[in-house]
Amino acid sequence: MKTRKTKTCLIVVAHPDDETLWAGGTLLSHPQWDCFIVSLCRKKDPDRAPKFQKVLEALGANGVMGDMNDDPEQRPIEEEEFERMVLKLLPEQAFDLVITHSPEGEYTRHLRHEETGTAVIKLWQNGDLRTKELWLFAYEDNDKAYLPRAVESATAFFKLSKAVWQQKYDLITQIYGFEEDSWEAKTTPVAEAFWQFKNSFDAGKWLNKQSRKS
Prior knowledge:
alpha/beta
């Protein structure tokens, strides 16, 4: 018997594996959500692209990949161009929930993560993307002092059950194929956290506050 879908959910991430690392437990715990996952980078990656498709199947989600520049130098992409690239990959523009990176990123540091979070907030503010709720990944590594961990003081903090965490870990190691001693496998968080917003004004205010900090 098929699970009745109760909520449309868009997940926008920079890379295939970000959806699993930072929100995999949440997605696995909500099979009733109708999820569409956008990975902005690696469409032409012969290794990661087919693995992303298998992860979509495992999560019961649909999705698409883009081919955004992901060079090691992390050269910034002009803000309006970044927003256009995100919009091109969306199947529609209205959702019950959107989940994406924090403009602060999840660790020190990856520019594409930060740009993704900023772009999604700006699209929501401009009315190009509509959603009832926005959740931003809430993780930090204290300037590389330790592996990324969920922020306990975030709006939402979920400790994953052992069974759900194991499913998530299996996606990282068995489908994406990361070795047990890899950064990804060691990082795979046992808790997930999000900054949650019900309106674009509050999200924009929060974004401006974080920008002033940096």
